[in-house]
Amino acid sequence: MRNSKVQSKSQKLLSKKNPEKGLILRLKKTGSRGNNGKITSGHRGGGSRKIYRIIDFTQEKKDIPAKVIALEYDPNRTAFLALLEYRDKERRYILAPQGLKTGDAIIVAQNAEISPGNRLKLKNIPEGTIVYNIEMEPEKGGKLVRSAGTAATVLGHEKGFCHLKMPSSEIRKISDECWVSIGAVSNPEYRFIDWQKAGKSRNKGRRPHVRGTAMNPCDHPHGGGEGRTGIGMKYPKTPWGKPALGVKTRKKKWTDKFIIKRRKKKKRK
């Protein structure tokens, strides 16, 4: 049915509680506009109010066991969160891996056990292990593989680097001194969610997406013409007149030298 709500197996494990008071922030909405008042990202704005949860991506409390006291939903990301409590009663949020349950214990240590949620250096992780929340530089916090259901695979070690296969199928080198978490990110069913109606998208801050061909010439390069017409040019363009679809948009970055194998290109239907 159109208005039915199907609860996934992962959601049934979540704790019904309010977010931890000391770990939340109020974020000011921008309406997808930059500091000059112009729209920088189209079709964004509105939506329900959200409280931002402060997440510990670095997990610098080493060799101190922590207990999972709650698994929570986060409206700001696709993955679920785990609320940890350390021996000194300090509480922190981390990205929850698949299989983690309330009452489990995790630890950040070089000689930690290879089990979901534990965090180790790459040099101490055997080949074939799946990991997430990966650092690009030691002690700088996890930057890679943080969305729902994703995981990278350890392929091998060579000259101070670890070869990782990313969710995109890209293979890259990461320093062996970088910290990673064991397991795959929680909520793998997120990709199968059907939002059912436009109202749910509006609640998430997504405004209607209008076709360029339906606009006026002053609003989009594809606009204008009598009736329903094509784009009127050899290749499609963005609203700002730059080539779109099939054009490389990735800028040269200092990390490009660590890419061993590029990701596979998507086949057009």
TrEMBL record:
InterPro entries (alphabetical): NA-bd_OB-fold (IPR012340), Rib_uL2_dom2 (IPR014722), Ribosomal_uL2 (IPR002171), Ribosomal_uL2_bac/org-type (IPR005880), Ribosomal_uL2_C (IPR022669), Ribosomal_uL2_CS (IPR022671), Ribosomal_uL2_dom3 (IPR014726), Ribosomal_uL2_RNA-bd_dom (IPR022666)
Superkingdom per UniProt: Bacteria
Annotated spans, Disordered: 24-45, 201-228
BP term (GO), one: cytoplasmic translation
Ranges for domain Large ribosomal subunit protein uL2 RNA-binding: 32-108
Pfam family membership, one: Ribosomal_L2_N
tRNA processing found in the keyword field: no
Protein family per UniProt: Belongs to the universal ribosomal protein uL2 family.
NCBIfam families: rplB_bact (TIGR01171)
Protein name as it appears in the record: Large ribosomal subunit protein uL2
